[in-house]
Amino acid sequence: MASAFENAKKQINDSAGFLSKEYPDKSRFKKAIELLKRPQRVLKKKISIRLDSGKTETFQAYRSQHNDARGPFKGGIRFHPNVSEDEIIAFSTWMSIKCAVVGIPYGGGKGGIIVDPSLLSESELERLCKKYAEFLTPYIGPWKDIPAPDVNTGEREMAWMLDSYEKKVGHHAPATFTGKPLELGGSQGRTEATGLGGFYVLASYSEVTRMIPVKTTIAVQGFGNVGYWFAKFATGVGYKAVAISDSSGGIYDSNGLNVEKLSQLKEKYGSFNKIPKTKDHELITNNELLALKVDVLVPAALENAIHERNVKDIKAKVILEMANGPTTPEADAILSSNEVDILPDVLCNAGGVTVSYFEWVQNLNGYSWTKEKVIKELKKIMDSSFEEIYQVVQQKKVSYRKAAYILAIKRIVNAMMLRGRL
Ligand code: GLU
């Protein structure tokens, strides 16, 4: 399988072809596209921390700063054993595209540490977060690079990192991190923002394709913060979530699952595969979930979930990507030729970074918004971004992903040209 960064570069190339005729100076445009296919800077360091046992352990850490033509770098930090330099660079590239798709004034960044956080104690994790933030301190800040949560990180980690950063610079600077706890300048609505943003995309898509919520079945792969909130909002207005999974397996009920009840069961049993089978629901595997005959399939877990080998099993008519990079370009090409609409990650999961942007705006102003205001502003951005993409889909007869990339690349390339970077 091609690497995530190979995939990201391929997606850029695919859409650049559609744009080149808009730029009379071909060699300048070509140079811009070449620049977009590499990060501006990749920071890496081996970070050693003291374990509770007294021993020392070392972890490989990264931060990729992809492109800052449209504004400071922005993007999450993930803790996962599968983190690699290639993957972090790919994610930072997708963040540049994502921020441009929704028109917020940032470039793309992404950080990560190769670690399984479930194997560390809370104090070991705190030491790791603080050391990582110390390492990043010269390179981040409200007008440089603004990290946020991603896979296996959240408010707690942001609070530790903020404290470490502020100690080092010697003053408060809450706008350096987003996704913070409310008490430290976090925003109302940040927790549910990614799921809610995806739900707004589903609602807009349903409207233009006349899909009726109560007649629409959904399968959601992944029940972390993103999958949970997406499923909760969708089922809240009547979409039928017939299957939901976590990394251990899935639960299926043809009559539709109750998301709150499922969340309680997960809390009680720890993982889906430990939930006892009842007459109301069946246990299925993640592969079975992906192959279900549903209207909308929602990959909301990790990258490369839908690939060359399992794409032939997909029966859904629509794929709404809530994870980053869940469909490989090869699978994407096959699905598109089968007329499956793929609503791309760079739009569907942009609600998270959009509310991160609101958090940054609030921090810079020393003021906080009500939840109602956050939700209203998020809806405005998600709805208008969908509409812009939909117009390109209609006019150029391209896929939703291509349309999103065309819009985003144009915005980034224009910013690079205006700055005279080419
Ligand atoms: N990690 C999230 C993403 O991939 C959020 C990034 C942010 O809020 O900066 O979009």
UniProtKB/TrEMBL annotation:
PROSITE patterns with a match to the protein in the record: GLFV_DEHYDROGENASE
Glutamate/phenylalanine/leucine/valine/L-tryptophan dehydrogenase C-terminal domain: residues covered: 187-420
Any one GO biological process: L-glutamate catabolic process
MF terms in GO: glutamate dehydrogenase (NAD+) activity; nucleotide binding
InterPro entries from the UniProt entry: Aminoacid_DH-like_N_sf, Glu/Leu/Phe/Val/Trp_DH, Glu/Leu/Phe/Val/Trp_DH_C, Glu/Leu/Phe/Val/Trp_DH_dimer, Glu/Leu/Phe/Val_DH_AS, Glu_DH, NAD(P)-bd_dom_sf, NAD_bind_Glu_DH
Annotated site, Important for catalysis, chain positions: 150
Record-linked Gene3D superfamilies: Leucine Dehydrogenase, chain A, domain 1 (3.40.50.10860), NAD(P)-binding Rossmann-like Domain (3.40.50.720)
Keyword NAD attached: yes
Binding sites annotated in the UniProt record for substrate: 74, 98, 356
Organism domain of life: Bacteria
Chain sites annotated for binding NAD(+): 194, 225
Entry keywords, A to Z: NAD, Nucleotide-binding, Oxidoreductase
SUPFAM superfamilies named in the record: Aminoacid dehydrogenase-like, N-terminal domain (SSF53223), NAD(P)-binding Rossmann-fold domains (SSF51735)
Active site positions, chain numbering: 110
Protein family according to the UniProt entry: Belongs to the Glu/Leu/Phe/Val dehydrogenases family.
PANTHER family recorded: GLUTAMATE DEHYDROGENASE, GLUTAMATE DEHYDROGENASE 1, MITOCHONDRIAL
Protein name (database record): Glutamate dehydrogenase
Organism: Candidatus Woesebacteria bacterium RIFCSPHIGHO2_01_FULL_38_9
